[in-house]
Design goal:
The chain is mainly beta. Helix content is 12%, strand content 38%. Strands 12, 13, 14, 15, 16, 17, 18, 19 and 20 form a nine-stranded mixed beta sheet that branches. Strands 3, 4, 10 and 11 form a four-stranded antiparallel beta sheet that branches. The protein has a three-stranded antiparallel beta sheet with strand order 7-8-9, with no helix packed on it. The longest helix has 16 residues. The two termini are 27 Å apart.
Length: 321
Amino acid sequence: MLRSLHLLGFGVVSPFLLQGKPRSLFALPLIAAFSKSGGLSSPQAALLPVSGCRSGGGYFRAFRMSSGASETSAHADVASGLAVVPPVAHKPNISFCQACGNPTKDVVPEGEEKIRAVCTVCGRIHYENPKMMIWYSTTQEARISSIDSTCTGRFLHSVVLGGSKVVGCLVEHNDKILLCKRKIEPSYGLWTLPAGYLEIGESAAEGAVRETLEEACAEVEIVSPFAQLDIPCIGQSYIIFRARLKTPYFSPGPESLECALFALDDIPFDSLAFSSIIVTLKMYIEDKNAGNLKFHYCTINKRPGASPSDPHGFDLDYHLH
């Protein structure tokens, strides 16, 4: 929940003093998202610039935040004699099983590389995923009663979202797209983009690269963000990146039956695993045919009773690009 806004020149102002609040996030001109396992460490870190590049009727701006010392490269640290601190492994924060209530223990499950909280009785593996914070800006009028004055300007708001964050790659190679045939439920035997749940301690781009390596044994480099798709009824948010193969090698990982490159005209839309993948690939094909690749945001509203792979079991809302 948004507790305060920092207005330049007026300090901290309650959001309830703001007049003309928008009725939904989707009517706002600027949406930027990032994942972070902790909170903002200082008020200064919350004051982000709201200017951006306007393209196709919407705003998109990539930015990096820092609440401490200035950023320096590892090479600069080594050259200056400073120690380069390795990343700290995340320690699970789940003491009791969410299924049966018995104690858990922190172990590395078979076939995995990270420490997880595993139930000592039923064996359930508990995964922890980061929260997502959405930043958006509006032009509003704020009335500050303590100084009996009114000001109009751009204000930055934030909302913390729960649910699962799924990240993946739309891998391009020689005008073809890399798809994986699922070896696990749900949607066993259907095709999908390499994607999976974001882990605590990694960025969305890092998670997408990791999932591509795990599911397709493919090393890729990120080209650009392509789409964010929210599915409110199941509490999922997808972030899909365009990527390219570093080497022309791929093979099925433990969760894939098969991996293959498909020309755009040969993509098996009648055998795709999820509505999010159907929407992503259709938007990509439309952009390619128009000769203009854009960043997309939309909400997928599943119809009651529709299966995950039903190509007609959903509606699209708030398609921004």
